[in-house]
Amino acid sequence: MTTRREFLTIAGTSTLAASVSPKSTADTLVTSAALAKTNKQPITHKPVRTLNGWTLPYTMNNGVKEFHLVAEEVEHEFAPGSVAKCWGYNGSTPGPTLEAVEGDRVRIYVTNHLKEHTTIHWHGLLLPSGMDGVGGLTQPQIAPDETFVYEFTLKQHGTHMYHPHADEMVQMAVGMMGMFIIHPRHGEKTPIDRDYCFITHNWALHPGTYRPDPSILQDFDLWTFNSKVFPAIDSVVARSGERVRVRIGNLSMWNHPIHMHGVQFWVTGSDGGRWPKSAWRTETTEIVGVGQTRDIEFIAEPGDWAFHCHMAHHTMNAMGHEIPNTLGVDQTLLDKEIQQVLPDFMPMGRYGMAEHQDHVEMGHHRGPENTLAMMTGKGPYGNIEMGGMFTTVKVRDDLVQNDFSDPGWYAAPEDSVAKRVSSNPDFGTPVRLK
Ligand SMILES: [Cu+2]
Of 234, 270, 335, 431, which is least packed with CB atoms within 10 Å of its CB? Predict the structure, then answer.
């Protein structure tokens, strides 16, 4: 995440950021502002902010916005302790977010640095058939080292994605995907203060290995927002009372019921654009199906709020799925026998799995190399016992507009935190079924 200092430095710069750098997330603020200045167009939208990601700068060429994507292998870190050889675009997975405005003419060069052919499909975009990017059907494949060009006019607005339509199962499984955000030409009736986006994905990075396995159908072990797992996922940061939009895409192999604490959000859009207000729904969980995008909007409430997929296994990292059920099993005799062979062995799971995080931190249950613990993350009150598709929404009263830096943990008002009143198991007179 951009630090306060970085933000101020960037915000104080008025030159157009021309270089393509994965670190240039905040540059997009400058890029859009500077471009708007040169084109004498008022900004009608807030630039979108890609969690842990970045927006691809473009150049204007005779009224056409020119982008250049490079398909290539990238060294990617899911969280400290887990790196892999993935494929992506311009040095990252997901690739950079493309951002434009309804009515724009865009020209997108695609250079293939992979050792096999590829294409890019502009998922959800209305365009001429020959620009749809389906290898073999609408165009020849882009061979290694070749550059193809796509050019079309954006006839719509909304939250869209891009991905290969060539050897699709492999290329998507190893990280080739990105978002394509199109803002409405004439602004939005209900304005947005902060606009976030990310793509959900799943990976089979088997314990001890360094390349995601594309042939897995269901048994994935890393669940990511923008190719990161908690606690490496950026927080959604906002000031109290701001209207926040989070745009969520799904190019994984599972549906994800995305749940947010603390508010009822409105589901307001998709790759069909921002829906008419009459179609908005109030929810606290919204399923983002495979191949779908969903926009949710909420008014920020002060606090630290969990934001996560509600499939409980999707908020875990690597874990064995074929282990015997140890719940309720007394292992005290067994552990002495096992300890003769494995002195570090500690029985676990008799009363639940929560102790796992502590055991890992104490050095027990050391997993294979390059493998994250199943549950992780620390909050101000202890272990959060989550991994995968989990992050926090951090809302504060005193944030400066456009400040996206992490404000730390919430200082809850006195007497507004759940607290211990007794350690006696016989406390009170609860009504119970016999
Ligand atoms: Cu999920």
Answer: 431
Per-residue model confidence as pLDDT tens digits over 115-127 = 999 999 999 999 9
Residue 334 clears pLDDT 70, i.e. is over it: yes
The H or E element containing residue 49 is strand 49-50
Q: Rounded to the nearest whole angstrom, what is the distance from the C-alpha of residue 422 to the centroid of ligand 1?
A: 36
pLDDT tens digits for 30-66?
Answer: 344 444 444 445 556 889 999 999 999 999 999 999 9
Distance 310 CA to ligand 1 centre (A): 6
Question: Separation of 244 CA from ligand 1 center, angstroms?
Answer: 22
Flag whether 67 is in a domain.
Answer: no
Contact 319, 219 (CB under 8 A): no
**Residue 312 C-alpha to ligand 1 middle, in angstroms?**
8
Question: Across all residues in the chain, what is the average pLDDT?
Answer: 87
Pairing of strands 178-183, 98-101: parallel
- Tell me the backbone φ, ψ of residue 34, rounded to 5 degrees: -65, -40
User: How far does Cα 350 stand from its chain's mean position?
Assistant: 34
* 230 in a structural domain: no
Count: domains in the chain: 1
Range of the domain at 337: 319-370
Q: Please state, in angstroms and rounded to a whole number, the distance separating the CA atoms of residues 249 and 229.
A: 16
- Is there a domain that residue 309 lies in? no
How many A from CA of 368 to the centre of ligand 1? Answer: 25
Quote the ligand 1 centre to 370 CA distance (angstroms): 23
Query: What's residue 41's pLDDT?
Result: 52
76 is written with which tokens? Answer: 């990617």
- Check residue 48 and report its DSSP letter: P
